[in-house]
Amino acid sequence: MLWLYAACGAYLLSAISAVIDKTLLSSKIPVPALYAFYSGLLSVGVLLLAPFGFSFIGYGFVAIALCGGGLFLFSLLFAYMAIARWDISRVSPVVGAFSALFTFLFAYLFIGEILGAWHIIAFVLLVGGGLILSFRYKTFFAWDVFFLAVLSALFLAASFVLSRFVFDGVGFLNGFIWVRLGSFVWALLFLLFPSFWRLLKKSPGARSPSSLGFVVGNKIIGAVGFFILNFAISLGPLSLVNALKSVEYVLVFVLALSVGALTKNRFFVEDGRRWVVIQKVIGVVVVGVGIFILYIT
User: Fold this and answer.
1) What domain range is 192 assigned to?
2) H helix or E strand, kind and range, residue 46
3) Is the pLDDT confidence value at 176 over 80?
């Protein structure tokens, strides 16, 4: 059950990072492309793990790892674009639910992962609970934001499956380093486009020491969570590890609610109507039952 504890811990750190992401996207770095660029650039910090197990893994695995890292970076880009336009507590569940569905499909097709009956029940509860949390009567989503969230989910699922393939082939730590380097390399490619340089020059706030300090601090939190998550991916059923992302958006809802109450920031204030609160509570309970089934089975 180590993979279950690791995944839940990873999603706790990811929830904290996601709420900080929303703060940065709403104020200090409002341009998602720049924020994704900085996130990818900071992936080079993974080389701090090199003394513990880093070596050349063959051209085939290197190509797969670089693709996995690139897909993860673009998943972040689409997610940031959606978060910048909509409530984080609604974007996160949609990304989580669809990435779980895509991962379930990809894991079955490409790595032959098959879940047992109880695990399928837990999977359905985790994904369903996330959808309950994200549902909004009459205005579930703006279609452009919904499309961005689904794209993010698709790229995230593909990244996870490629990462698992690399972990199985070359070991977790070495594979993880190469995948993260993939995100770094793809971030550097942003610099090849003159339009990106113009965007960077038009956003002086994104280059300020305070903004970069916030990004670095937040990315350290996110990096620790992501490392633990990938460790869970290397151990447990990929579909279930991804479905457990419901834990993250339950925590995002709680954290966003707390931040909104303390700061009165309109980006975090949640709808307090009774039926909305009941809906959220039902979603949390459904996710909790899914986790309990995983725990006892």
Assistant:
1) 2-296
2) none
3) yes
